[in-house]
Amino acid sequence: MRPWHDGVNALAAAIPLAAPAYLLMDLVGNPIPFVLGWFGGGSVRFTKGVPPPVESQLLAYVLVAMLGYVGTRKLVPKIKVYTLRRGISGKDLGKRGTSLADKDVPEALGIVPGAVFLICLTFCLVGYATTNPSKLLDCNSALLSICFMLFLGFSDDVLEWPWRYKLLLPTVASLPLLCCYDGSTSIVVPIPMRSWLMNEGSLTTFGWLLGHIVTVDQNANGAILNLGMLYLVYMGMLAVFCTNAINIYAGINGLEAGQSFIIGCAVLLHNLIEIRDNEAYRENHLFSIMIMLSFVGVTLGLLGHNWYPASVFVGDTYCYFAGMTFAVVGILGHFSKTLLLFFIPQVLNFLWSIPQLFKVVPCPKHRLPKFNPDTGLMQPSTFGCKSDQYRWLKLPGAKDATEIPNMTVINLCLQILGPMSERALCITLLGLQIVFCIFGLILRYHVAQFFFDD
Description:
Blueprint: H1 7-28, H2 32-38, H3 54-85, E1 89-90, E2 105-106, H4 111-131, H5 136-159, H6 163-173, H7 175-180, E3 186-188, H8 194-197, E4 198-199, E5 202-203, H9 205-210, E6 215-216, E7 224-226, H10 229-248, H11 255-277, H12 282-306, H13 315-332, H14 336-341, H15 344-357, E8 370-372, E9 377-379, E10 382-384, E11 403-405, H16 409-417, H17 422-447
Antiparallel strand pairs: 1-2, 3-7, 4-5, 6-7, 8-9, 10-11
Helix pairs in contact: 1-11, 3-4, 3-12, 4-5, 4-12, 5-6, 5-13, 6-10, 10-13, 11-12, 11-13, 11-17, 12-13
């Protein structure tokens, strides 16, 4: 029996979903009047041209997400037969030295949740766009950007694009989002830093110099900076980062889908808190919830097949699809800076990987951990070097070593905690993701009040 089917794994999958599910039930309350209202009965009445109650919309999005979960769960085993038939498969490098080492594992199965997600989102948009016509442009741009990245990911799994294209094409895919973005391009300056820009009603030297690049709002006494076009550049870079951050923080069974599921739950929790406490931005966060619920549903359906030992690989198809979906909700939901708080492990992984990504030190094609068939445990993979090379990367007692661990958070975790099984390693990394998402929410709702005005 597959590990996913035991109660422990099912319970573990429910942990990230528990908080948003509780808050969702609290917001919806008794669902029966809204369900009856859909069919013209009950105490809830819907008026043409008037947006339905938030509770009714949330309930509808939950039902669509559940259908997305079931559809993905059922379709993956059927579609993997076709990918195997066409030779779209790979070997599990984490199983070398075992009986599973030579088994062909279907690749690029991220196309299934991506396609199901688009179907779910299209059904959601039918109702959403008719009652919120002002958001129709946002809806279409979101679909266009996600479709673009889904196509790019699948073509990458089949054709193996060079890295230069992987950086360029997400930038192009983000253009529909940036073209229809109608939100603010200003940022609020933290309270301790405002004196750097203005002092006693006048610009400081630093503020005057900065004013040649961006606009310092003197009426707000330096509390607001209008970045203008630079803000759009930042959001374009955010789309590139999100799509590639998940892709390079991967390589073990369940990690890509698992981290995306946890981030999706954190985004959902943030949206639900904002809907409950901040009515002014309710429409933006409701739009984000519509997208995220379907995304979390299809991701959970995929995770059951990608969990250790994986029967399918998600491929770059899923990584790019997931990354662009997060970029879409962060940009069009107007919480792009909060979104980055949920990507702290991915940011750390990128920063730690910079020397290898930019070829300062050798970068093998695969940097995933190495399986030791003698112990049955994963250990850090390495790259070779001369004894006098890259001494700044070597531990104090091993300055003459001729092998250095690859620079990823996955390998770093194994260096710090020691060898462990692939399943235990994935659970450890996903636990770390949960901790950092909680930390991000604490920063957003408790620490930020000391640095920003209400």
